Backbone:
């Protein structure tokens, strides 16, 4: 059912006036929960978020968020969503308490309730003692946490987070990921747009990978990692030739360097390994080693882009 989905698109496309195709016939169904939207800069992540918020109209296709068709009711969709933008958008002369309370009022809370709710969410994100300080004196991490607080102040059904760990040092990144990971415990679904696949691997149950506006992978995070194993083939030379030979056998692979190939194993590993050995033998290459390992999301995405 649509109500069980965080996001649903069908043949969704958007082409800017400049001719740039930002999204290309994107069809996905994403369940509620904690979802990572991953891709390189320029892949179409922010465009998809803006379409979900009704800030842009698609060139073709449809998009639904939390069961609501965005084209039919963009205002209604936004009342059920929180949004944390990537860019620095906070007025430096205002306090965190004032900013978050204002967003609470804009979402329909009475002034006193908005002020109380702002205090609660600022405490949740670790800014209780700093809530009456001007934003201009905040660190990058404190600004990011303020943006997260305003996104959740009205208890939305879901929040859209655009690069929530951008610009953070390692400690700040850990703190932000911990906060994002807690949101599902409050019944809030999360869509995290990021180019950092490690962030998604750590806090998201589901992952959608896009590249050049097109869908690459969609599925449960662990299932994507478990279904695809990697074998590293170490040669004396000839990696590019082996990649071509494996592609002719329907096996995805990428050359790491002139003497090393990473091979994707799907289905029957034994059959795939026999095919790798046969390809090496047919090419007359000197095989030094075969080593197996499981893929991370970074490796899966890199191999998929190489195969494409």
Residues:
């Amino acid at each position: 059912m649509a109500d069980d989905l965080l996001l649903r698109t069908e043949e969704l496309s958007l082409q800017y006036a400049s001719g740039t195709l930002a999204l290309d016939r994107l069809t996905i169904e994403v369940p509620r929960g904690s979802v990572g939207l991953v891709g390189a800069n320029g892949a179409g992540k922010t465009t998809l978020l803006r379409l979900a918020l009704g800030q842009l109209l698609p060139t073709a296709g449809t998009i639904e968020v939390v069961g609501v068709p965005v084209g039919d009711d963009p205002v209604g969709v936004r009342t059920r969503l929180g949004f944390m933008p990537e860019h620095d958008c906070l007025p430096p002369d205002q306090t965190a308490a004032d900013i978050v309370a204002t967003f609470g009022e804009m979402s329909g809370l009475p002034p006193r309730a908005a002020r109380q709710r702002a205090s609660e969410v600022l405490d949740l994100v670790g800014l209780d003692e700093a809530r009456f300080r001007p934003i201009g004196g905040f660190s990058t991490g404190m600004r990011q946490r303020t943006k997260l607080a305003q996104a959740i102040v009205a208890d939305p059904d879901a929040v859209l987070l655009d690069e929530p760990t951008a610009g953070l040092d390692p400690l700040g990144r850990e703190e932000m990921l911990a906060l994002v990971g807690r949101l599902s415990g409050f019944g809030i679904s999360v869509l995290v747009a990021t180019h950092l696949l490690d962030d998604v691997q750590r806090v998201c149950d589901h992952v959608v990978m896009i590249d050049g506006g097109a869908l690459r992978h969609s599925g449960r995070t662990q299932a994507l990692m478990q279904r695809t194993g990697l074998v590293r083939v170490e040669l004396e030379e000839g990696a590019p030739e082996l990649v071509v030979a494996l592609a002719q056998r329907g096996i995805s692979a990428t050359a790491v360097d002139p003497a090393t190939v990473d091979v994707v194993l799907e289905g029957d590993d034994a059959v795939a390994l026999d095919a790798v050995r046969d390809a090496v033998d047919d090419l007359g290459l000197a095989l030094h080693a075969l080593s197996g390992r499981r893929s991370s999301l970074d490796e899966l995405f890199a191999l998929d882009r190489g195969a494409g």
Observations:
- The mean pLDDT is 88.
